[in-house]
Amino acid sequence: MRITSSAVSLNVADPIASAEFLKRHYGFTEDMAAEGFVSLSRPDVGFNVIFLKTGLSTFKPESAKGHADGLLLAFVVEDIDAEYARVQAEGVAITTPIETEEWGERYFQTADPNGVIIQLVQWMTDPTAAA
């Protein structure tokens, strides 16, 4: 098997609001959009983030329809403190202030207008050393 690209698709009530949040605060760009659908990317992320309007009749399988509850979009960054200050200055509400886990993961979280959690992470130690 050869994988040529990757994406994560999230069901949300308002795909445009979620897309605008990632574009404005996290530097994503819009690749495609249609009724109930927005696909975003960044060249350094390695996958697309797709927002689908909850309840689309074309969404398959039916059993997976719903909201993106319990999911985190996590992105590793080089300077967590600078990113924290940046998003605060942009007026983004912080849902979880900076915390550092004992295994060296330093992170904070925000939420987009649909409640999707965006987590920025900086590894303070080699993450493989904690395994």
Automatic annotation (TrEMBL):
Q: Which domain of life, per UniProt? A: Bacteria
InterPro entries reported in the protein's UniProt record: Glyas_Bleomycin-R_OHBP_Dase (IPR029068), Glyas_Fos-R_dOase_dom (IPR004360), VOC_core (IPR037523)
Which ranges carry the VOC domain?
A: 2-123
Protein's UniProt name: Glyoxalase
What organism does this protein naturally occur in? Glycomyces algeriensis
